[in-house]
Amino acid sequence: MRLYHSPTSPFARKVMVVLRETGLIGQVELVPAGGTPVAPGTIPLERNPLGKIPVLERPEGPALYDSRVICRYLAEMAGGGLYPQARIWETLTLEATADGIMEAAVLTRYESVLRSEESRSAAWTEAQRGKITRALEALDARWMAHLAGPLDCGQIAVGCALGYLDFRLADLGWRERWPALATWASRFAERPSMRETAPAD
């Protein structure tokens, strides 16, 4: 298999963590790729027409894209433990919540670095930050027990989402507002799979 990824993408990081947690990392060739919505760069458009990473080439069919699809595929290869059937809907919903945080954070980042200052929209940025805030409130209010349970892909997604906030949107001050969630994130970040995939410019 071949994985196109960027070390600064939270979506790619989620796949990289899953590869390590499942023991499949040795079966994948890692191919650096990067770009933006306005300049696709080295993203393999012939494998993902949407122009996003990560993308996973596999021997038995077309390339897979969207981190949730790739993570589910890898988890199935490894026996499915990261998507436990007993709490599958909770795991999927938690993963979707974390992915929403990542998407809003990436869009906020794009607004500040891809647009000229005069063309930036404060209302757009605030709308994205509002999504992040509401999602963090939901995690703190409803999901702490799940986060404290056995490892699943929902937890991995949340860990990567919170790590991206620390990496790109530290001014949100989310750790001070949600200390229990911050404590969980700090502990989760100590997993070898998280330490080995921590983003850096």
UniProtKB/TrEMBL annotation:
Q: Write down a Pfam family by its short name.
A: GST_C_2
Its GO CC terms are: cytoplasm
Xref: InterPro entries: Glutathione-S-Trfase_C_sf, Glutathione_S-Trfase_N, GST_Omega/HSP26, Thioredoxin-like_sf
**Methyltransferase recorded as keyword:** no
The Swiss-Prot or TrEMBL record annotates one GO molecular function as: transferase activity
Domain GST N-terminal, by residue range, is 1-82
Q: Which UniProt keywords apply?
A: Transferase
Recorded protein name is Glutathione S-transferase
Record organism: Amaricoccus solimangrovi
Instruction: Provide the organism lineage as a comma list.
Output: Bacteria, Pseudomonadati, Pseudomonadota, Alphaproteobacteria, Rhodobacterales
